[in-house]
Amino acid sequence: MSGRTREGYSGTGPGPITPDGCAVERWLRLPVGREPNIIERAVPAGASILELGCGVGRVTHALVERGFVVTAVDESPEMLEHVRGARTVCAAIEELELGEERFDVVLLASFLIHNGDPEVRAAMLRTCRRYVADGGAVLIQREGENWHTRVPREAKTGDGGLIRVAAATRISDELTEFRVEYEFPDAEWSHTFPSYRWSKDGFESALSGAGLPVERYLTLDRTWVLARPA
């Protein structure tokens, strides 16, 4: 396991577990989804991208293949061991230090903006604002607006696996503890984590307050947003 553990986050199953409870071997089994297509349509060809929370490089590798220049950041060295074709930086997003570097695009995917700690959420947005170039874009992935209530739910993977959002326990009016289970023929993992329930207005207000007003939503379900530095 990586050095520290984030409060409220835990994971079980074979292989290394990251500070926020993610199992490295489980992420290696999950294919990339529609994320690269959404990103490619929204930003200039060949743009420099700062990918925050890259994990094992599921999205990273697809972006590199499409000609983007990616700096991939993750707090887990075990995750970064699997990233290829991109510069890697081992750091927590809220503590990232890259000097005066700026990027055409800053990417905060994987619903990381729903972190249970308000100080971490605010610091993540500060990191996005700090490293996006003037005229650049910040792309953020947020949860669907009914995800805290549509539980349980499950989906099958192409290799015989099953992903199940098994439980959602209300901690407060704005915070939910989720338990997600991953079942494969030869291994099982679980991931427990707190998730902040953003309203659309609250989300947009937080981004605006961080100097990143929302320009537009990139998907009909409003799970992907593009913001520009003010």
Automatic annotation (TrEMBL):
Residue span(s) of domain Methyltransferase: 49-136
Keywords: Methyltransferase, S-adenosyl-L-methionine, Transferase
SUPFAM superfamilies associated with the record: S-adenosyl-L-methionine-dependent methyltransferases
Pfam families the record matches: Methyltransf_25
Region of interest called Disordered, as start-end residue ranges on this chain: 1-20
Gene Ontology biological process terms, A to Z: methylation
GO MF annotation list: methyltransferase activity
Domain of life per record: Bacteria
UniProt cross-references to InterPro entries, sorted A to Z: Methyltransf_25 (IPR041698), SAM-dependent_MTases_sf (IPR029063)
PANTHER family named among the record's database cross-references: METHYLTRANSFERASE, UBIQUINONE BIOSYNTHESIS O-METHYLTRANSFERASE, MITOCHONDRIAL
Name of the protein this chain belongs to: Class I SAM-dependent methyltransferase
Organism listed in the record: Streptomyces sedi
